[in-house]
């Protein structure tokens, strides 16, 4: 279900979803049912059991119609587990081509207009662009006007990210040409 015509991109975190398999799956299912996002990313940079939870994550996402599952950073694991795609970090531009060759939908994190245009040129399917609003430890927010300027110069799908925690934030983003919005806290 779209919000204001935008795609929703739910990003998990250890803080909200936990780090045990049972807790993670339970919390994930609750949030998928509640928010019905089109895109979902399993993101946990420190999980000792990342592979185990990633396997369960992909399996759970497949139970929901129209949900695309993404793994963070690891194209090979995403392909092996049958995830829809991979979400690369802003330091992984060189991995775009290989991930595309694997048949994965590729989203990459970006923080400047130049990075967005580079991702577009290298063939990524979408980017997250952040931070739009104030977000803990993420630096100075870009703001809506900067997002609008970016959307006027690029063709790639752009998910606004960063500090999106209220319906008011979503409504402001909906007034741009953004493909969608991504968030951790909005979806919990």
Strand arrangement within the widest β-sheet reads: 1-2-3-4-5-6-7-8
Based on the structure given, which CATH architecture is correct?
Alpha-Beta Barrel
Tell me the number of strands. Answer: 8
CATH fold-type name: TIM Barrel
Q: Alpha-carbon distance between the termini? A: 17 Å
Largest sheet: 8 strands, parallel, barrel
Unreliable runs: none
Topology, element by element:
Layout lengths: L6 E5 L2 H4 L3 H15 L3 E4 L7 H13 L5 E5 L2 H7 L3 E4 L7 H6 L3 E6 L2 H10 L3 E4 L14 H10 L3 E5 L5 H8 L5 E4 L5
Parallel strand pairs: 1-2, 1-8, 2-3, 3-4, 4-5, 5-6, 6-7, 7-8
Helix pairs in contact: 2-3
Give a verbal description of the structure.
The mean pLDDT is 95. The two termini are 17 Å apart. The chain is globular, with a radius of gyration of 15 Å. Helix 8 (167-174) links the parallel strand 7 (157-161) and strand 8. The longest helix has 15 residues, at 21-35. Helix 2 packs parallel to helix 3. It is α/β, with parallel strands linked by helices and 188 residues long. The protein has helices at 14-17, 21-35, 50-62, 75-81, 96-101, 113-122, 144-153, 167-174; strands at residues 7-11, 39-42, 68-72, 85-88, 105-110, 126-129, 157-161, 180-183. The chain contains eight helices and eight strands, in the order βααβαβαβαβαβαβαβ. It has one domain: TIM Barrel (Alpha-Beta Barrel). An eight-stranded parallel beta barrel has the order 1-2-3-4-5-6-7-8, surrounded by four helices. Helix content is 39%, strand content 20%.
């Amino acid at each position: 279900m779209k919000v204001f015509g935008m795609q929703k991109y739910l990003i998990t975190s250890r803080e909200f979803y936990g780090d045990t398999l049972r807790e993670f799956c339970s919390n994930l299912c609750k949030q998928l049912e509640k928010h019905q996002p089109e895109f979902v990313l399993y993101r946990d940079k420190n999980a000792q059991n990342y592979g185990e939870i990633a396997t369960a994550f992909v399996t759970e996402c497949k139970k929901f119609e129209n949900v695309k599952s993404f793994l963070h950073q690891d194209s090979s694991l995403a392909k092996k587990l049958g995830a829809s795609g991979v979400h690369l970090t802003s330091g992984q531009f060189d991995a775009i081509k290989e991930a595309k060759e694997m048949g994965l939908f590729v989203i990459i994190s970006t923080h400047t207009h130049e990075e967005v245009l580079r991702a577009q040129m290298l063939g990524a399917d979408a980017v997250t662009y952040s931070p739009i609003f104030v977000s803990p430890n993420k630096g100075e927010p870009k703001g809506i006007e900067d997002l609008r300027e970016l959307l006027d110069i690029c063709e790639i799908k752009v998910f606004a990210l960063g500090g999106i925690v209220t319906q008011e934030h979503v409504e402001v983003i909906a007034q741009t040409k953004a493909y969608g919005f991504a968030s951790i806290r909005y979806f919990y």
